[in-house]
Amino acid sequence: MTYKSKFGFGCMRLPLTDENDSSSVNQELFNQMVDIYMENGFNYFDTSYAYHNGKSETAIRKAVVERYPRDSYQICDKMPTWALTSKEDNDKFVSEMLERLGIEYFDVFLVHNINTPWLKLAESYNTFEYVRKMKENGTAKKIGFSFHDHASLLEEVLEKYGDFLDVVQLELNYLDWDDPAIEARECYELCVRHGLDVYVMEPLKGGVIVNPSDEIKDEFNKFNPNKSIASYALRFCASLEHVKIVLSGMSSMDDLTDNCNTYRNFEHLNSEERDFIQSIALKHKQNLAIPCSDCGYCVDACPEMIPIPEYFTLYNLSKSQPEYNNYRLYFDKLADEKVPAGECSYCGTCLDFCTQHIDIPDELKKICKHFKEGFTPYSS
Ligand code: SF4
Ligand code: SF4
């Protein structure tokens, strides 16, 4: 395996024609990005039943499946664990996914987002056994699960099912490596101990790493003005021996070009760079009030349709860069154009969905207080 083969195209944040409609994938731009990605010798696409409200899979069919020979690319898809209501649903979802993609087998198939409540669902409906049969009958070449919980739960899952699985997809990046809420290092080491490959998701922590404060940007610039902030994060993950794929969710041609450069001329992180990003991680943590990765799962789950990650981003910015005093304006605008944060009914539905274990209703309450009391309205 070469470093080049580790670069996976994450299809959860594809370019859109309408920023307010996650199903409006910009097919033309995505096709162009796929062509450049493939021309550069990369070939791995990661999607799920849920991404872009099902439109990620159809976009891959149009951009990849209908335009390239089947043996020139690999596709990973994922069972929507939270949507299972019966054993028969396993079959129903897999047939639908194969049809949306226009393929006859998956290169990799994962049980999506195993955490405490959804492990129970997957076990109630025999999903791990079902996935094992998919591998036996050739519907999937490699099987595993994606994971967003603590190392103790991962150990439990690996003890039960690790002997017939190939892959665990983990959230792993230099901010989460030693973070007690994510335990990325422990999770990685557990997978290695059980002999499973690690596929990395969120190497940029949903964009948090590449959108730091001006102070952190200056530090990167001083350290080496010729390397992008994203390149360090990708190299951190791909330098780990048992990491076989590092997904990158790319929404623009610039993202793609930068990442192609990183992998075409791949360099292991050296010790000086490692020390540097460790110091950056500490600074990030001091600045990041709410560790949201902008995955969007909570928004789809919220009955009030509150744009939760947008409020969290605004709050984080207001804490890390308080010198810009337009935040109250944006807070009011978000409430007017979408849904006010104060509409939260404390139903708690979002809590099972949060990949970062954030107490969303409590944070929303805090944010309302912060913007209403802590900031002067822009117009006054
Ligand atoms: S607790 Fe609030 S934010 Fe969470 S799902 Fe319920 S209404 Fe939405
Ligand atoms: S609050 Fe949690 S579920 Fe919602 S976008 Fe952020 S990390 Fe994802």
Provide structural commentary.
- The chain is α/β, with parallel strands linked by helices and 380 residues long.
- The protein folds into two domains: 282 residues, TIM Barrel (Alpha-Beta Barrel), CATH 3.20.20.100; 78 residues, no CATH class.
- An eight-stranded parallel beta barrel has the order 1-2-3-4-5-6-7-8, surrounded by six helices.
- Helix 1 packs parallel to helix 10.
- The chain is globular, with a radius of gyration of 21 Å.
- One iron/sulfur cluster binds next to helix 15.
**If classified by CATH, what would the architecture of the largest domain be?**
Alpha-Beta Barrel
- CATH H-level superfamily of the largest domain: NADP-dependent oxidoreductase domain
Strand order of the largest sheet: 1-2-3-4-5-6-7-8
Structural class, judged by helices and strands? alpha/beta
**Can you give the helix content as a percent range?**
40-55%
The description of the largest β-sheet is: 8 strands, parallel, barrel
CATH fold-level name of the largest domain: TIM Barrel
Tally of contiguous helical segments: 15
CATH class group of the largest domain: Alpha Beta
So what's the overall shape? globular
Give the low-confidence spans. 376-380
CA radius of gyration: 21 Å
Please trace the helix and strand order, writing H or E for each element: EHEHEHEHHEHEHEHHEHHHHHH
Strand content: 5-15%
Mean pLDDT: 93
In total, the number of strands is: 8
- Separation of the first and last Cα atoms: 60 Å
How many domains comprise the coordinates? Answer: 2
Bound molecules: iron/sulfur cluster
